[in-house]
Amino acid sequence: MTAAFQEMIKNAKLTKKERLIADYVLNNFRDLCFMTSTELANTLSVSHSSVMRFTKDLGFSGYTEFQRTIREQYNTYISSHSQSSAIPTVKLTQSLEKLSKSSIIETVQDITFNNIRSAVMRNSTELFEKASDTIIHSHTKYIVGSRACSVAANFLSVNLKDTLPMVFPEPSDSLNTFDYLSDISKRDCLIAISYPRYSKLTQLAAEMASRAGAAVIVLTDTPTAPLAQYATHLFTNNVDSLTFFNSQIPALFIAELLCTYISKKVGNKNEEKLRLIDRYTSSMELY
């Protein structure tokens, strides 16, 4: 929540119902980036007209302008706490100055802790529960993440493949991403991973899946990132690092949490599958 928005609500003359809405907005600023006016009204058991009056009493023309302002302020807040959007050459120059003034181990430790903390603070238990249910119940699970994001994508591919049926990583051979997703449907889901400076390919893959009616699970840095508009379930986190590249640790942290939630729900149903895989990997010592 930004100080400007807090001040706006503080100075507004609001009714009892509008104060209820205001309290929810102050405590759920990130969620409001994507909630419709109807969803907000239903969540608080108030009328849709109460929500509309609330936005107008704050000085907005309606809910659309209100939500756009929330998104802009939230994105500004996130950007001010993250350096991940800078181009690599700029980040390299900045990082060299930091590296000469600090202990590398201690500074990387602090940055990594803050990145992981952002993943914990921004992504609720309910979000992990819903996303893991969606993945489990989808017929086919597609996973897309290019370049450095392939780290988390590969982690998810291996562990979900060992846990669930019909899990397919993005191809790296003669098939392109759009060949790969050409059969995606509303029975399926796509896990799309992209951080600054954002892969256009991954964005188009998310758009393709969304248009087909598939659920889209997105891992990115802010609710206003290019992929976010297609998200059924949106995970965000910082990816700051001490040098020119984005840290992959927080994305891996979220990926591991997702796999853990799924593993708990699946239980021992994949035991036979694991035995089959182990029989052959052991014979080749592919550990």
From TrEMBL:
The keyword DNA-binding applies. Pfam families: HTH_6, SIS. SUPFAM superfamilies: Homeodomain-like, SIS domain. Keywords: DNA-binding, Transcription, Transcription regulation. GO terms for molecular function: carbohydrate derivative binding; DNA binding; DNA-binding transcription factor activity. InterPro entries: Homeodomain-like_sf, HTH_RpiR, RpiR-like, RpiR-like_SIS, SIS_dom, SIS_dom_sf, WH-like_DNA-bd_sf. Residues 131-268 form the SIS domain. The keyword Transcription regulation applies. One of its GO terms (biological process) is carbohydrate derivative metabolic process. Residues 1-77 form the HTH rpiR-type domain. This is MurR/RpiR family transcriptional regulator. It comes from Dorea phocaeensis.
